Amino acid sequence: MRKGQAIDLNRTGQNWFETLNEALDSEALTEMWPLGLNINYDTTQGLASGGRWISVTRDSAGRYERPIHYTTQMADTYPREGN
Q1: What are the respective helix, strand and coil percentages of the chain, to the nearest 5?
Q2: CB contact set of 56 (below 8 Å; sequence gap of 6+)
Q3: Taking a C-beta distance cutoff of 8 angstroms, is the pair 77, 48 a contact?
Q4: Torsions phi, psi of 51, nearest 5?
């Protein structure tokens, strides 16, 4: 997501996804998620990446909830590819 880009809050109308990439794609965050960072079952993973705080939950069945994200001034908390 680029700075100043408008956010469509209901791109698909779907809140649960079978894969992490589907969940991240629902909010245009795939490119900001560190390659290789997975989420365990029944866990929420949060991180700062590229000026955004991103939080994704994975339930006990392995489904991923639509990410929550917002602008932050926090430095990246996980090494990003190319940095």
Answers
A1: 10, 25, 65
A2: 20, 23, 24, 39, 44, 45, 46, 64, 65, 67, 68
A3: yes
A4: 85, 10
pTM of structure: 0.79
* 1-24 pLDDT, tens digit each: 455 555 555 555 789 999 999 999
Residue type, 74: M
Which strand (E) or helix (H) includes residue 24? helix 20-25
Predicted local distance difference test score (pLDDT) of residue 81: 58
**Residues near 21 by Cβ (< 8 Å), separated by ≥ 6?**
30
Distance CA 30, CA 26 (A): 9
Structure token pair of residue 8: 């469509």
Two tokens at 10? Answer: 């209901």
